[in-house]
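Colleagues,

For the teaching module next term, I've prepared a clean inverse folding example: a structure given as tokens, and then the sequence designed for it. I'd like students to try predicting residues themselves before seeing the answer, so please don't circulate the second half yet.
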């Protein structure tokens, strides 16, 4: 018999990579941190992404294709130039260095003359000199130079510069007239739905609404006729003003003109245009290709914004992409009080703060796709200081000093400050610790011993620095310092007696004296006699 052996010829395995460049245009503002964006997707394992020609200040992650950073200020803007298109060459290589995708992407950098975060293309006062761009152009001054502005005038006038608002988003208040005569009125005919003018001040407020957008329409100019009349009803100023309303299909606060995914369906506008689907319809999107991972849930917190203390539903600016049945969202305020939260149909996290909310609000999104299974984002509350949201301090455990709860402004801070600094806030906690040591609480004795053993060390470290700091700040008070030292002497006897009745009493006594000293010094009606005493 004849054996016949057939050997299949070897062929190189075809490249099945779906790597591609994301070519859609992205808009950033100079000097402002950019919202992270992708220049490539479906990068092969071990592959690399390069982006040549990125605006200064932006960098690409070679492993993920994500671009982050803050575009540097451009120093060579033209006199009236307000935005510049930068062409970026993007390439993707596999683990062997072979190029598997290459294309160009445009990054539009918008000018921000005054650095207020609002680009000149929408800012009505580019140089922030108090005169609008329209007024400066009319007067022949430079709207991009704060040292060049029109002479002041008290004549009634219409503010004619163009204003841009976003459909469905509360507009920043803007003026349509100024220098309104006493008893005069302002009328603004043709304002977009949802906006209204205060006839006494000329200020426009509200949330614009457009219900008849064209298929591909992304912004609409609305001409408003503004007139000013005096107290007798005589017209003293009249002109037109343009209000541009920008479309926001998914209601995320980012207008379609700059949003790379208008309907927030997970597919970019460029991908939808290429696939022939509708980028403004979340129910119309490209079919997933084999091997694509488009189901992972992610959280974008770059657009987070403050909410108002009210009972209405408010968009936090947090966006969840590809949420599923296992995605959960919850929120609590500073005091741990539950705040109603939900993810709407567009992936936006919406909360209902309530009028008594104390910020910041902590929003928690839970999903197995997220790092650690969850993402936490803080949302501020309008009207509260960012560094002290929630109001009262908790240094004293919620207690108030005598006579201070009324908000009196008669506190003698030259006595109050050194008293509090002299004894140190930690000593105020000795009172409850000392009293608790007299009760038979299992496991408490070791805590008393530990606290007692550390008291001397704490006071030795703080003592010299505390006095020097008080003198440097000009709040040092000799008699009060002597009283504080007497309390500290009591504490030196505590450590050897820790855990015994005497030790507990000493702790309680020291805490009580410290609290009394601070209360006496800080009370508007107390401490007059001790302030006049002399040290010995």
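(Answer key — instructors only)
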């Amino acid at each position: 018999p004849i054996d016949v052996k057939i050997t299949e010829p070897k062929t190189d395995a075809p490249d099945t990579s779906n790597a591609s460049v994301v070519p859609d245009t992205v808009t950033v503002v100079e000097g402002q941190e950019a919202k992270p964006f992708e220049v490539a997707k479906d990068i092969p394992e071990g592959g690399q992404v390069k982006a040549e020609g990125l605006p200064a200040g932006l960098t690409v992650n070679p492993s993920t294709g994500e671009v982050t950073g803050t575009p540097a200020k451009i120093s060579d803007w033209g006199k009236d130039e307000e935005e510049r298109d930068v062409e970026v060459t993007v390439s993707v290589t596999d683990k062997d260095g072979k190029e598997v995708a290459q294309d160009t992407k445009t990054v539009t950098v918008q000018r921000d003359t005054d650095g207020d975060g609002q680009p000149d293309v929408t800012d009505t006062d580019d140089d922030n000199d108090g005169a609008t761009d329209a007024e400066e152009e009319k007067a022949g001054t430079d709207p991009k130079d704060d040292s060049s502005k029109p002479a002041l005038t008290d004549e009634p006038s219409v503010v004619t510069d163009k204003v841009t608002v976003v459909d469905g988003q509360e507009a920043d208040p803007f003026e349509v007239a100024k220098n309104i005569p006493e008893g005069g009125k302002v009328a603004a005919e043709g304002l977009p739905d949802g906006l209204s003018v205060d006839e006494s001040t000329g200020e426009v407020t509200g949330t614009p609404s457009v219900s008849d957008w064209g298929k591909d329409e992304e912004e609409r100019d609305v001409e408003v006729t503004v007139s000013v009349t005096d107290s007798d009803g005589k017209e003293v100023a009249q002109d037109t003003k343009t209000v541009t309303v920008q479309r926001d299909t998914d209601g995320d606060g980012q207008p379609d003109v700059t949003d790379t995914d208008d309907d927030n369906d997970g597919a970019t506008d460029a991908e939808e245009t290429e696939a022939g689907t509708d980028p403004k319809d979340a129910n119309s999107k490209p079919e997933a290709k084999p091997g694509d991972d488009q189901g992972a849930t992610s959280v974008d917190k770059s657009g987070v914004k403050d909410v108002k203390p009210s009972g209405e539903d408010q968009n936090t600016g947090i966006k969840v992409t590809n949420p599923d049945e296992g995605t959960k969202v919850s929120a609590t305020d500073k005091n741990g009080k539950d705040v109603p939260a939900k993810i709407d149909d567009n992936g936006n996290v919406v909360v209902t703060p309530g009028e008594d909310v104390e910020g910041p609000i902590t929003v928690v999104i839970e999903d197995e796709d997220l790092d650690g299974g969850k993402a936490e984002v803080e949302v501020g509350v309008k009207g509260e200081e960012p560094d002290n949201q929630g109001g009262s301090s908790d240094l004293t455990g919620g207690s108030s000093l005598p006579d201070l709860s009324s908000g009196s402004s008669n506190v003698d801070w030259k006595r109050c400050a050194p008293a509090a600094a002299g004894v140190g806030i930690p000593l105020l906690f000795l009172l409850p610790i000392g009293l608790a040591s007299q009760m038979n609480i299992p496991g408490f004795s070791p805590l008393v011993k530990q606290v007692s053993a550390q008291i001397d060390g704490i006071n030795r470290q703080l003592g010299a620095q505390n006095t020097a700091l008080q003198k440097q700040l000009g709040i040092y008070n000799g008699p009060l310092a002597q009283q504080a030292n007497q309390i500290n002497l009591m504490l030196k006897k505590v450590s050897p007696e820790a855990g015994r009745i005497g030790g507990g009493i000493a702790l309680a006594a020291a805490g009580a004296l410290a609290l009394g000293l601070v209360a006496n010094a800080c009370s508007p009606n107390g401490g007059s006699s001790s302030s006049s005493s002399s040290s010995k």
